[in-house]
Amino acid sequence: LDYQHVQVPFEITLWIMLASLAKIGFHLYNKLPSVVPESCLLIFVGLIMGGIIYGLNDRSPPVMDSDIFFLYLLPPIVLDAGYFMPSRPFFENIGTILLYAVVGTIWNVFGIGFSLYGICQVKAFRLQDVSLLHNLLFGSLIAAVDPVAVLAVFEEIHVNEKLHILVFGESLLNDAVTVVLYKLFRSFCEMPTIKSVDVFAGIGKFFVVGLGGVLVGLSFGLTAAFTTRFTKDTRVIEPLFVFLYSYLSYLTAEMFHLSGIVAIISCAMGMKRYVEANISLKSHTTVKYFMKMWSSVSDTLIFIFLGVSTIGENHEWNWPYICFTLIFCLIWRALGVLVLTFFVNRFHVNTITSKDQFIIAYGGLRGAICFSLVFLLPDFHRKKLFIAATTVVILFTVFVQGMTIRPLVDLLAVKRKRESAPTVGEQIHIRFLDHLLAGIEDISGHWGQYYWKDKLEYFNSKYLQKILLREYDQPKSSIVLLYEKLERKHAIELAEAGQLGHGPPHPSLLHFGFLCSNDRTVTADQKLEDTLSPEVLNNMKEILARNLYRIRRTGPAYNRHTLPGESEPTEHAQELLILRHKNL
Amino acid sequence: LDYQHVQVPFEITLWIMLASLAKIGFHLYNKLPSVVPESCLLIFVGLIMGGIIYGLNDRSPPVMDSDIFFLYLLPPIVLDAGYFMPSRPFFENIGTILLYAVVGTIWNVFGIGFSLYGICQVKAFRLQDVSLLHNLLFGSLIAAVDPVAVLAVFEEIHVNEKLHILVFGESLLNDAVTVVLYKLFRSFCEMPTIKSVDVFAGIGKFFVVGLGGVLVGLSFGLTAAFTTRFTKDTRVIEPLFVFLYSYLSYLTAEMFHLSGIVAIISCAMGMKRYVEANISLKSHTTVKYFMKMWSSVSDTLIFIFLGVSTIGENHEWNWPYICFTLIFCLIWRALGVLVLTFFVNRFHVNTITSKDQFIIAYGGLRGAICFSLVFLLPDFHRKKLFIAATTVVILFTVFVQGMTIRPLVDLLAVKRKRESAPTVGEQIHIRFLDHLLAGIEDISGHWGQYYWKDKLEYFNSKYLQKILLREYDQPKSSIVLLYEKLERKHAIELAEAGQLGHGPPHPSLLHFGFLCSNDRTVTADQKLEDTLSPEVLNNMKEILARNLYRIRRTGPAYNRHTLPGESEPTEHAQELLILRHKNL
């Protein structure tokens, strides 16, 4: 037995296997995931695993390595989030999202930091040795809302699109702020004296870290799009470039101490439309599928590891500090949302209701990012206290808030996501209004979002598309594409319902066999049509059609763990019955 | 700048990126890959890269780590090979393949080992310090034909299926022999005295290593099939199981010193039919696509690394030894093939022609496996000589034989792969003959391959399918499946040719919109049909159809670097023209 030789890949494979099997296990009992969010179940599995490891080895189970988390587990999730980000609501609410992400996070950091420092001054709690800087450092890591946790919960409760993008967008973009504040306070902790220059440098860094991330991401994204121009003869490695360039953008940003999350999101959003146009349909399915798969596995692993890492002896328990941390996290988040929304609502016609505000505040879940950051802290004598407080805050938000948010959404009757997709009429009207508003803004000299959107679209079609798209000479109107898609769908439906045989096959079809001689099935079709008379063929088709049905795959618009086209088998069964009924 | 933090993933990503870009680069100039095999070009890129690294750092570039090769680069290629292995020709020729793989490899090992030992006795060559055991050890690593190199060359020359499977199957299955002999001689080298018991134990190990690999692989493969029974609600992680279980089978086999290659091939071949039936169509596309992508990247990386590792100072040059190694490799391979084929032809009606024999002997390419094994040798004073000899043999076989085999195949007019797929009639006859022969064998009491195949099929449908397939209660005849596929294809073709609109849409279609209300396009279809009269709709369809064409994707049957359905755009253009002509 030579275990050492294969240990690393073997254990990684086993962990992934455990995560995947756990996921299958939950879904075998349909009732479980509808009550408890998957993230809670996974943490629970992790806790049990941790307990087993602890019991067997009699020492703390291995903690999730922060490097592994930031370098390998986080990027797939963020890439998936960025690639499937609904860009219209995102850019429509970008101002509000940035306000929440930047000002809101700073508000939380300082609020939590200073009030915890106040608690530390109470002598009875025996916490006087925790300095203000350490409290602020702790505040900077505990304040940030976690995209992984938010996604895991919000994708299950189906709130309206605006509310979803506000919480989710904030959780993604606050990374720039968190990175800056966390690194700033950490370096302050190690400095003997802090000059005012350092503080101003810190403020300047916000812009560098955020905008630098966007810049790195966009440049890699456009390079990716440019590369896929040339993959016509090597279709099989096309999907790879999407992953490689996104990952490189993340790593490069991290290397220069910029925000990796912001970089990978800009990369994904920047490349998406060009890559989709360049690569083949199958490559695109693979890209989408693999992104979903990868992020799903990463997310599962993160929650399981969170559970495993909770068990062990690296906690220092101090009731007052831990309780007050939790209370302050909730209070400052609520206050922040209230105050910021007050300003946002003054400048917007479409206001954020108080119900929405409650859900935004309540949806501020903490997760694995805080957890990894707290382990990355430099060693000092109260680190274990911080670890314990972070663990409690994460478990509280994920378990209590995560499990109660769905009943609360039902109770408050928060506006839900519209179930039906917009009709063609609505889509045309939306586009018409966009053009109209861009025109109005242009005439009135107001450089608003429609003006910029129009300019960007012009720049895109004038320059970018020519450089980045392979077949630029054939731009297809989206209405033509839609028609094409409908026609194909219609045809497949006809074939499946067995109604294709009503008209005789067109003679030109007989040439298909010769032209696609490489293709086995078409050749066979050809042979069949050569040897059988049309009547016999029609009869055969009809008889077979009544007993044939392949379930068509259609599904809801956006869900993190499924690709479009994977659900509602009952509807199809119903449809099938109706069709059979009509036929007979 | 914090490079250290991201170094490992960054460099890995960059290497993969280099490999992928190199691949794209070759295919930009269509003439290049048709003359020089891709593997040669990649080694050449590697040589240049190695030269640059050597020039800049003034020391040997990093060598391909044997662990990385065996644990991460080899499995994807073998998995791909196993998963897409044409099982019928493989099992039809299994006897011949095993003979070549086992007896042929042993023949080569001892032939090369003893004759090199003879060369070492010549005083003028100054090689007397290389013992017989070391020569045999060297023979065991240099004798084995390499699957990666063979695949890379043979997929481009399109020889007939039997010839292809003979060389390729041998290269895969000789792994068990190589593992045993290599480990045996290596342990003999470290032993003070060798007893006859050890030699017999070595012979017994052949069966353990080979059959053990098959057993490990099959058990993991069937577990994988069983697992995919339960993935109906977690479609997105379905493809993962195919990869996880195959990889686990490889690692487990390696852990127990069994043949990992044999294990992963049995795993892939064992699970394929059940997994395909259980998982969704999109999952299956992803599995196939990702396997191709992964193996393609691995294979590219291996050849680039081969090139990079060649540059450096770990070579000891000894003209006689290196030249004689090369000569003996060629001679013993040719002799082995001649002798073995003589016996094979005596027992078969369908003999292997002398042209085929020449190609089998000439196609015995050496590759990265030899290279990794030679670096794994225990340190002794002549290791560098062995490295140099191995490098020369690999470069000679890949460059000289790899580049000349295509012209030779043309020159000798070796029977090629049939271009067209078998017709339905042929398929039905083949199946009929199978049943007939199984019956004859059963009556005559001869337990031949048809008898066993029939028994296996019975066992499969009686027990295995019931356990491993999700929807066993609806077994579909393959002729029904074929019809279904034809009907769909026909429908799409009709739609693309714009001939679907000739008949009025059936009233039952109007119900589709209500039933699939989640799906944007169908709803839109519904809306369109509600508001427009059938005549207007038909007119619209016809007008649009003349200007619409989406290229259908069809392609040749098996190619390692492309998935079915990715080629021949010219044919489609032709077809398009014909269709338009007919319409106008």
TrEMBL record, chains A, B:
One of its GO terms (molecular function) is potassium:proton antiporter activity. Its main location: membrane. The chain crosses the membrane at residues 12-29, 35-56, 68-85, 97-120, 132-153, 165-185, 206-227, 247-268, 289-307, 319-347, 359-380, 386-409. The keyword Cell membrane applies. One of its GO terms (cellular component) is basolateral plasma membrane. Residues 17-409 form the Cation/H+ exchanger transmembrane domain. Residues 529-584 form the Sodium/hydrogen exchanger regulatory region domain. It is found in: Basolateral cell membrane. One of its GO terms (biological process) is sodium ion import across plasma membrane. InterPro entries: Cation/H_exchanger_CPA1 (IPR018422), Cation/H_exchanger_TM (IPR006153), NaH_exchanger (IPR004709), NHE-1-like (IPR001970), NHE_CaM-bd (IPR032103). Keywords: Antiport, Cell membrane, Glycoprotein, Ion transport, Membrane, Phosphoprotein, Sodium, Sodium transport, Transmembrane, Transmembrane helix, Transport. It is a multi-pass membrane protein. Gene3D superfamilies: 6.10.140.1330, 6.10.250.1040, 6.10.250.2020. Signal peptide: none annotated. Belongs to the monovalent cation:proton antiporter 1 (CPA1) transporter (TC 2.A.36) family. PANTHER family: SODIUM/HYDROGEN EXCHANGER, SODIUM_HYDROGEN EXCHANGER. This is Sodium/hydrogen exchanger. The lineage of its organism: Eukaryota, Metazoa, Chordata, Craniata, Vertebrata. The gene is Slc9a2_1.
